Amino acid sequence: MTPPRLFASASLKLSALISDWTPFGLVASYFIFSTCLYMYCSDGLIAIFWFIYMCTNFYIAGATVLEAFMSIAPCREARKIVTQAEEKGWLFPTAHSQLLILDLLIVAYLPNEKDIIMDRAIYALEQIDYPRDKIRITILYNTPKSIEPLETELHRLMDRYSHARVIKVPNSTSKADNLNYFFTLDSGSDLIAIYDCDHYPHPNGPRWAVERFCADPDIDIVQGRCVIFNSRDSFLTSMIAVEFDKIYAVSHPGRATMWGFGLFCGSNGYWRTSLLRDLKMDGSMLTEDIDSALRAFSRGSNTVHDLNVTSYELAPTTFPAFWKQRLRWAQGWAQASMKHAKMVYNKPHDPLHLNYNRSFTARFGVLSLLLIREASYYLVTQYTCLVLSFVITKFPKSAEELWKLVYFQYPVSQWLFIISIICLIATLWITNQVKSEFVSRKMIIIFSIQYPFYLVLSATIGLYGHARQVVRYSSWNPTARN
């Protein structure tokens, strides 16, 4: 290699190294500067900051427990429907001949998912209980290099199963590219279901989703419940499993009831084909699924969360894989929040929903979901820095002094802290009532004990996502599966 090329190659590597490590430097500087600043603040300023952060914590805990209580009704309704179906010998309301035509997409990013794609494809083709003349299961994949004999085996599935279709997407580098390519094909379906490759859809999941569309023509999107099935692989996966139960069985249906809108979450989601073909996926967004969900909501589309539409997925088994996944989500949410925060105040306009006008409740829900949630990362980490400054300047000599230092610096803190703890316990109690078969009560108790540390970690990841957005980090890093 000639000297100019060597210099150019070295420059590119140095530039990539700086781009990768600049977010870390920004976040580290943020924590150091904030902690040092509190060390030099007067007692009066410290009291003001303390009160603000405790009130913020109280708001977050209160909103969370309200969502939890609002989720009780959808959970009861879902159980009631299952009981009725069981009493009728699992005879669904809609006759087979009247069911909608469904395209079920299994989206794979190879080589990351080369070890699981065949297993998931065969499972879906053999186990999903839906009339085969009404469903087409498409394995939609891309790969930068040929992977044999895997690719040949995948394409042979079309010879074994009449409802199978395997498509290798050319020139694709992301999930969005795969999906947008499929949207250019005329499949003639009424609905499109999207699944990541690591999912096992419940055999009756598609039928439950289609029944919702058949029962209510105003529904545009049905988002199902995602359950972590490898909860016993490690401590990390057990905590993620509890988190997913809290999110999908409590927070999502509760928020939809409280604020009046639901969200497509990327997998185990069912769309009316016409809507999804019109919106497509924005490949410039790291979380193209959240972006598409918010664009759908902005034009008045109706998304519902159905707890009976269940799918089982893998959680990352190592902390580096978890870190990489959550950083991508954090930066993607930051992108989506910046892009769609205008829904708090703007007037919706869509030719298909001329009479749609966003209610005050929905607007406040958007404010809470996008802006307050993003701001909470700073409030949680600032509180952490404030406590750290106390530990440095007023180092406790016993556990009792540390306890008082962290939570009971001022009288009002006692009430705010106690109420916040009650809210947390109530939320986790409700989560325990709807936990999946892969989550134990012991896991929920452990999750509740380490919850403060989880909040700090989540907030730090959120800050890291913001820092990546500042430096325009744009790599789409898929999670490795095996």
From TrEMBL:
Membrane spanning stretches: 21-41, 48-70, 375-392, 412-431, 443-467
Entry's Gene Ontology BP terms: proteolysis
Main location: membrane
Keywords per UniProt: Glycosyltransferase, Membrane, Transferase, Transmembrane, Transmembrane helix
Organism this protein belongs to: Clohesyomyces aquaticus
Lineage of the species this protein comes from: Eukaryota, Fungi, Dikarya, Ascomycota, Pezizomycotina
Domain Glycosyltransferase 2-like: 192-426
GO cellular component, one term: membrane
Compartment(s) where it occurs, according to its Swiss-Prot or TrEMBL record: Membrane
Its membrane topology: Multi-pass membrane protein
GO terms for MF: aspartic-type endopeptidase activity; glycosyltransferase activity
Coiled coil feature spans: none
Family annotation (Pfam families): Glyco_trans_2_3
Protein name stated in the entry: N-acetylglucosaminyltransferas-like protein
PANTHER family, per database record: CELLULOSE SYNTHASE CATALYTIC SUBUNIT A [UDP-FORMING] (PTHR43867)
